Amino acid sequence: MCRIDNCETKNPDQREVSVREDDKGQIITAALDGSSRSIMYECREGTTPGDIVQQAVAALKVSAFPVLYQYVGQEGAVTARKGDLWLLLEAAARYYTLVELKAIPPDFESLTEAYEFADAIERYGHVSIYEIHLRPAVLSSPPIPNQPSKKSRP
Asked: What are the tens digits of pLDDT across the range 10-30?
């Protein structure tokens, strides 16, 4: 059982968000801009960050909300994302803060260098530019109009 301690709305808001760990266990973050709403909760004595993270992850999975990052130790954290809506949870002792952030998508059109594309794919999981959707190890694009299909060629 938890109770709301305080609420806050920010527009604009900017946050560094943990999105995953790399092969060496280092946290990969993404800078997000947008509008946010945060609610801080106080839970009953005996509640741990692990309890809070476990319950949050279970609820997110039921809601088909992909969990990108989760951590449990002395404190706990969860990052989940569906489209431009990010849910961030930070837990310490018996308190936790839940943040809903409606992110403004990054300006992928301004990327010009290969390392910028690689960094964006690593941080955001995809890059969409000129109707081509780039993801790690995948390239897909819409069919080119007026091109004969492979079956119709002689």
From this structure: 999 999 999 888 889 899 888
Q: Do 58 and 29 reside in the same domain of the chain?
A: yes
Contacts 24+ apart (CB under 8 A), 108-112: none
Is residue 87 very low, low, confident or very high in pLDDT (cuts 50, 70, 90)?
very high
pLDDT digits (tens, 9 = 90+) for 110-135: 778 888 877 777 666 667 776 666 66
Same domain flag for 68 and 54: yes
Domain that holds residue 122: 108-152
Based on the fold, state whether residues 15 and 36 are members of the same structural domain: yes
- Long-range CB pairs of 15-21, under 8 A, 24+ apart, other chains included: 15/88, 15/99, 15/101, 17/79, 17/86, 17/88, 17/101, 18/68, 18/69, 18/71, 18/77, 18/79, 19/68, 19/69, 19/79, 19/123, 19/124, 19/125, 20/68, 20/69, 21/69
94, 129: one domain: no
In degrees, rounded to 5, the angle at the alpha carbon of residue 15 between the alpha carbons of residues 12 and 20 is 145
Structural domain count of the chain: 2
